[in-house]
Amino acid sequence: MRLTLKHRVLNAKERKGWHSFFVEIYDDGTRVYEPLNMVADPKDKAKYRAARQFCQDVIAKRQIELSSIAAGLKPSSFRYRKGDFIQYCREVAKKVRNEKTRENWECAINTLARIEPEGLEFEEIDKHWLEDYQLHLLEHYSQNTARHYSTKIRQAIGMAIRDGYITENPNDQVKQITEKEGEIKYLYFEEVMLLDKTPYRHTRRRVAFLFNCFVPVRPGDLAVLSEANIRPSSDGGFEVYFRQGKKQRIESIPIAQQGMVYLNQARELAQAKLGRELKPHEPIFDIGHKKWYGSMLKRWAKRAFELHGDELSLEIRTHFSWACEELSPHWARHTGATMLLNVGADLDAVGDILGHRDRKTTMRYAKIQPRTKRSTIAMMPSIASGDDHEEA
Predict the structure, then answer these.
(1) Does domain 79-172 have CATH number 2.30.29.170?
(2) pTM above the 0.70 mark?
(3) Please, what are the averages of pLDDT over each run of 10 residues along the chain (392 residues)?
(4) If you count DSSP H runs as helices and E runs as strands, how many of each does the chain have, helices first?
(5) Domain ranges of the chain
(6) CA-to-CA distance for 247 and 241, rounded, in angstroms?
(7) Beta partners for 231?
(8) First and final CA of the chain: distance in angstroms?
(9) 31, 24 contact by CB (below 8 A)
C-alpha cells in the first residue's frame, strides 16, 4: 500500500491558482483518493511549505493506521470514549473566529447532541449513520435548515478523517441534502407608497425600512450603518459601503434619490434624540432587536392596509393583505432588487449592487411581477378571424 500526496489547481475566482491537496492511496492496482481539506497559495512560499508539511505529516500518520488495519490491528487512535465525536465538533467550533459562523456551528452541534443523547463514537460514523442522521433532520426541520446542520457535521467528519479518527469517508457515499430555493418575498411599489404615507409611533424603524427599500443593503448592515459607511460617489451622489466576508472585500451601493430623502430624515431623528450631531461610527438607524423590528413592521403594514388599502387595485390589495401577516426586515432588500429588475435594470448590475458572487443568486430575484407578465403577453400579435380571410 502506497500513499502519495497530490494536488489539483483551483480555478475559483477568489483562489485561482491555489493548490488543493489530497492523498492518493494505491493498493494492489486500485487507486483511492481522499481529500485533505487543505488549500494553499504557491505564491506564498512560507505558508505553502507549512501546508505541504502538515499534509505529509497527516499522510505519515494515515500510513501507520492503514498498515495496522491491514494487519488486523485497531490503531490506538481509535480508542475513544462515548461521545467523543460530539466533543471533537465542539473543539472545532471553538477555533472558528467569525462569531456568526461559530454560532452556526454551535446550533448544528447542539442539534446533533439532542439526536445522540448517549454520545457518539467515531467508529459509529459510517454510511448508515449519516443516512439516518440526515433523514432525522429532514423529518424535524425545514429542508434548508436540515442542509445547514448537515453541512457543518459533514465538514467535521471530513476534518476527523483528515486527523485520522475515522477510516472511511461516509460523505462520499451519502448525497448531501439539496438546497431548496426559498421564495423571494417583496412589496409592490404602490405598497411602499402606502407605507410612506402611513405614520407610526416607531418613526426611526419606519424610516429605516423605507430607506432599505431604495438602498438594498443587508438588514445586518442597516442596523450598524453610520456616517463612516457613507461616502461621495464619482457621479456627485453618495453611496453606502461595507467590508464584507472573511477577505473584507468592499461592497458599495449607490444611494437612490428617494433613499437620500429617508437617510436625511433618519439623521434628523437621530440628532433630535441625542441632542447633538452624530459621531462617525454611531448608528444612524435605530431598529432595535430584529424580533421587535419584525413585529413592528407587521403592525405598521396592517395599519396602512386599513387606512389606504382601498386605494390599491384588486390584485395588489390582495397581495398586501397577506403581506401584512408576513412582512419582515428582509422584504426591504428583496423589494429594492425586484423593483430594479422590473423596471429593466441589468441583472448583473443588480447582482453587483446586492453583493452577489454568483449570478444564480441574483436570478432568484428576477421573478417578473404577475402584472408585468400580463402586459407582456398582451403584446403578442393576434391572427385575424376567419371572416377576414377570403375564401380560396
Answers:
(1) no
(2) no
(3) 86 85 80 81 89 85 69 50 76 84 91 90 90 94 91 93 84 89 83 95 95 91 92 89 65 91 95 92 89 92 95 92 93 90 82 79 66 64 61 46
(4) 15, 6
(5) 2-73, 79-172, 189-377
(6) 15
(7) 239
(8) 85
(9) yes
